[in-house]
Design goal:
This protein is of the alpha+beta class. 41% of the residues lie in helices and 17% in strands.
């Protein structure tokens, strides 16, 4: 076996270059996309799906000890529970970004706001809402990232 020096291995290092936290390994976009895929593939409401959605919206939950599907333990001993996003439309509606609204159509749900409109279509109403709201959040996240990068490059030089 040939031993490659750091200059020959495209920057790969056997030791992690980050803290090892989920938030360092996955972007917010990655987490939201995983939740969208989970929703699209769901055949019924599921607490594991609720947990995936909660992690996408609240990435800091990944830093807490997981007790079960959709339940985490805070350092003070209290518990955090994911809402039942995939089964309760009222819980799914909490995912809609502030300042955006929901419109129901004969083919599904649309979340509408200043940045555009995103649809969600699923046999389960709550999951339709989750899909549309998560897609809107993903688009807003991309816009915020682009605005931040523009600001950093052009204002702070």
């Amino acid at each position: 076996m040939i031993d490659l020096g750091p200059e020959q291995n495209a920057g790969w290092s056997p030791t992690p270059q980050n803290s090892g936290r989920v938030s360092d390994l996955l972007s917010r976009h990655d987490l939201i996309c995983a939740a969208i895929v989970g929703c699209a593939r769901a055949t019924q409401p599921d607490r594991h799906l609720d947990a995936l959605i909660a992690l996408a919206v609240f990435p800091g939950l990944a830093e807490l000890r997981r007790l079960g599907a959709g339940v985490w333990l805070r350092p003070d001993g209290s518990r955090v529970r994911a809402l039942r996003y995939s089964s309760l439309p009222a819980a799914a509606k909490t995912l809609v970004p502030s300042g955006y609204w929901i419109e129901s159509t004969c083919t599904g749900v649309i979340v509408v706001g200043a940045e555009g409109a995103w649809s969600g279509r699923h046999a389960i109403e709550a999951i339709s809402i989750c899909l549309a709201a998560l897609r809107a959040r993903d688009a807003i996240c991309d816009c915020e990232d682009s605005t931040h990068a523009f600001f950093q490059e052009n204002i702070h030089g």
